[in-house]
Amino acid sequence: MAAVAHEPITPAEGLLDIFLSLDTPEGFRAELVEGEIVVTPPPDGDHEDCISQIAKQVIRRSRTDMDFSGNKGLKLKSGDGCPKDHVIPDGTFAPAALRLYRGADSWMPCEGVALVLEVTSTRPRADRETKRRCYARGGIPLYLLVDREAASMTLFSAPENDDYRELCTRPFGKPLTLPEPFAFDLETGDFL
Question: Residue 169 belongs to what H/E stretch?
């Protein structure tokens, strides 16, 4: 019997292998965020309603024709020696002309994504802080956070390193301007 030499794997590679082999229960989603495996239960109806209201407005009113994907796995740059972040935004928008989702693997690179959307639920701090850093590291131009607890929406823009340099927050009921390539005021009155 011949011995086979194996390259030693790093802790980050081992964690990524474990993550990629997970078999989560139906409706649950697993993410690898800053070196931590996070499993999230199915969202409530109000969470899904927020996503639906935003997606309809973007599809109908955006200056650039947009494609939408709910729960699309994105591979993002990692920080501090962790494996690549594997994050599933509540919503991902990309210019339709790119046909970014066609032929994409379950975990696709984030190049070409115009905006990611998160609606707070069971782990609001992760959406406010951890995922914000992940999306900025990935160079995603716009991150829209619907914070149900704070009754507000925040648009993060101008990613640089581990964060966004600019943000604009509006309470529910006040419009929030989405810049190019969207170029319209997102109405938030339906979230009240």
Answer: strand 163-171
Q: 104-109 — which CB contacts under 8 Å span 24+ positions? A: 104/72, 106/73, 107/73, 107/74, 107/75, 108/72, 108/73, 108/74, 108/75, 109/74, 109/75
Alpha helices in the chain (DSSP H): 11-20, 45-61, 124-125, 131-137
Is residue 165 within 8 Å of 136, Cβ to Cβ? no
What is the per-residue pLDDT for 135? 94
Query: For residue range 67-81, what is the model confidence (pLDDT) as tens digits?
Result: 999 989 999 877 665
Distance CA 175, CA 57 (A): 12
Phi, psi of 132 (to 5 degrees): -60, -45
State the sign of the Cα–Cα–Cα–Cα dihedral 132, 90, 31, 153.
positive
Cα–Cα distance measured from residue 5 to residue 8, given in angstroms and rounded to the nearest whole number? 9
Amino acid at 158: A
3-class DSSP state of 129? helix
| Predicted local distance difference test score (pLDDT) of residue 11 | 72
Q: What is the pLDDT of residues 82-101, one digit of tens each?
A: 667 889 999 999 999 999 99
Compute the distance between CA of residue 35 and CA of residue 187 in angstroms, rounded to an integer: 36
pLDDT band of residue 154 (cuts 50, 70, 90) is very high
